[in-house]
Structure formats: structure tokens, C-alpha cells
Amino acid sequence: MSEPLLFEISSEGRKGYSLPPMDVPEKPLSDLLPETAVRSKIAELPELSEMEVIRHFTHLSTLNHHVDKGFYPLGSCTMKYNPKINDQLAELPGFSGVHPFQEVCDIEGALQLMGDLACYLAEISGMDEVTLQPAAGAHGEMSGIKIMRAYHEKNGNPRKKIILPDSAHGTNPASAAISGYEAVQIKSTDAGLVDLEDLKAHLDEEVAGFMLTNPNTLGLFEPQVCEIAKLIHSVDALLYMDGANLNALLGLTRPGDMGFDIVHINLHKTFSTPHGGGGPGSGPVGVTSRLAPFLPMPVINCGKSSYSLDWNRPDSIGKIHSFYGNFGVMVRAYVYIRMLGAKGLLRVSEDAILNANYMMRKLEKYFLLPHTQHHMHEFVLSGDWQKEKGVKTLDIAKRLLDYGVHAPTVYFPLIVHEALMIEPTETESKETLDEFIEIMIHIAEEVESNPEIVQNAPQTTPVRRLDEAAAARSLDVQYRES
Predict the structure, then answer these.
(1) Omega into 280 within 30° of 0, i.e. cis?
(2) What's the CATH code, domain 84-339?
(3) Percentage helix, strand, coil, to 5, in the chain?
(4) What is 342-460's CATH topology?
(5) Which of 103, 174, 246, 352 is disulfide-compatible with 270, CB 3.0–4.6 A?
(6) pLDDT less than 50: residues of the chain
């Protein structure tokens, strides 16, 4: 450690400064480095002051859109505000400084937090046991499907198919296929719900399970979910819930009470931890007691006076993460749950549902609403009316950028033409919702009076509209020296 700066006052009262000696290497740094690490010529870098650097990166940060800056109604992604207390507590040295290679006896505090969080998630979801290992929702799906496979193989009855509705998230059939199953699609009714007759027609002894999102991607609750559970269980298949939309259910109902056997939970959505830019995420999986032996190992043992990791799991699907999961995300979710409590979590879902339905009713006169019944936490509009004027949903999404609002999810779910999938979350005020509603109405009016301005949007962003089709077909990620 270098010596502190010394301040001395002379007898004349003048302030003098005494600097500690500097450690100057005897040889140039270039002599201390291997030849391959030494530049062949001087780097042509600009000479900038600290202030100029700070202003540069501050300016770049204002060009990025994020929840702290503005409204982010990205449907199905639940882009809610992340309270700063989550980050502050996750930065405590005992959490941020813990290392997965430490001895278990040195990290019992972390194990206790994870054990308690798993218990909270089990209670919230109605499941019997929860693993925190999966690093994302899709990773949770794959883990759940591996548990399905292990269950059926243990019973001596391996299966070949996983069925799912046509409104499913794209990760559902992908997870089924990557796990070696045939993905079979069930159609939806005109009301946007599972067609029970089509489901019955596809049920047989080769079905391993049914992957269902509830509320579904249209934002609609499946009122026949208990009957669906009975049908699935009648052929000894398992009912899996994609928990991406759990933000609509907190305190109102639980997947376990509906008959689900497996559920994954997105901590980075429902429990308010930062996500975007590829991560980090966390996708814990909850199961009923008959599936608990197949959970990935290790499992946290919560003793009366100590915590440990149980590796003696002969029926486990194995390890699915390098260590135990994304611990920083778990800390944030734990803080969020403890801060809100049971009543607060109930209020989360109540306000999310209220905000979505308020916005939906305000916009249904200006955009086609394919499903007019009461929704849950999100809703899906169609841009078909605007398309008749030559304006596509993508154009509307680009025009929103000119008003400083992030666009909602577009062209999903696939069963809605020109889909605009909007999820306001519970964290937005009525004033923010009203501002977004006014912008959407204004864009609808622009389509009628001046469609070209919408077709050519965005007009005010630093980068104008890109040729996304060409970029997808001619992907070029090669580094070039300037």
C-alpha cells in the first residue's frame, strides 16, 4: 500500500506538501513484457481529458433505451422497474464477494438465502420443491423436460411426444426438440384458448407432457386448466407450466393448485431483477413431490443449525449449471420478495392486471382487438386496420421510437395477424400509461392523414431504419481494423 499524502504547515503558516516516493521500475515496461505483448508501433489514440471521456460515455448512455429512462411495454418480457435497493443489497461484500469454490462451511449465509428463496418460490408457485440452478427461462424449460424424461424412464415407459398450443412461446417447441422429443401443436379456439377437442385427439401413451403458458401469450387465463390437467394425467403425462407470465398470478392463484406438475419461474421477470442484453437471468424450476428425486443436483439441505449441499441423488438428472446458478439474480429476487411480502406480491399482480386492461380499453377503438374479453397482465392488438392503409405493425413500432418510447413486442404471438403485444407491468403510473395511449392514438391518426411519415419512421433517432432482412441474410460480424 502506498504512503498517504502528507500535509505539513510551516512555521510561516504556509501550506506545504510532501509527496510519498514513487516506485519507478528500473527497466522500461516493454522490457518486462513478452515480445508478443509489446506494440510494434505507438498506438494512435486520441489524447482526451477525463471530462471529455465522461461526457462521451454519458452521451452514449442517453441514446440507449432502458426502464430507468422510459416506458418499456415489451409484451411477455415483463420489463418492470428494478428497485435500486435490490442492487444495493446484492453489492454487499458478503454476497458480491462470495466464490463458488469456497468451502461449504464458509458460505452458509449464501446457502441459507438460496434455501429460503427456494422455499418462498415453492409457496408462491404451489410446488413442493424448487431448484435454483437453471440460468434462464429456456434453460428451465430444458431442465423440466429432462425431469419429464427421467420420470417416464424410471417408470419403464419412455415417451416420444410433447404437445403444446399454437400460442406457445417459441422456446417451448425448441426446448422439446432439443431434448429429443417430437413437438406436436394444438390449435386454439376463436376465443384464444386451448381447443379441448383437438387436445383430446392428440392424447395417447406416447405423450410425455403438455407445455402450457397460463395466462397464455394473448394475456388470457385458461379457465379450463383443471380439466386440461385431468386429461393430461389420464395418460400419465405431465403438465408443464411456462412461468413467463407468473406476474399475473402472484397471490391470486398458484400453478400447483391448478394441477401443474412442473413450472419454471423467471426471476428476471416476475421478481424484478435486471435483464436485457443477453442476461444474466435465472429460471428456477418447481416440481411436485413425486418428481423431486429427479431435480438437478446438488440440492440444498436446510438443517436446524447448518446448511449443506446434497450430492447423493441417484435419480437426479445431473448437474445443469457450472455452479449452482446466477447468485446475484437470486439475491435481488430474495430482496424483492422480502421487501413486498405476501400482500405486496398480491398487489403486484392486481396492479399489472388493472394497468393492462385500462390501456386495452383505451386503445380498442383505434386498433383491432382480436380478443375482447377481460385480460390479465398483457394484451395483444392487431395492426390489420392500419395495414389496409399500407402501414405495417413494424412501421408503428418504428414510429414509437420517435416519441421516446420502446416498442412493444411485434408479430407475436403468431396466431394474431400484425400483432402488437403490450405489457405495461405494475410499476408504471397512470400518467405514463396515458402518455403512451396518447402516442398510440396519435400514430393511428397519422396513419389516416399522413401514412408516409409512419412508413419512413424513425425520423429522429441517431440511426435511421435499418434493412433488417438484409442484415439477417448477410450477417457480417467480422472485425475490421480501421
Answers:
(1) yes
(2) 3.40.640.10
(3) 40, 15, 45
(4) Aspartate Aminotransferase, domain 1 (3.90.1150)
(5) 246
(6) 9, 13, 482
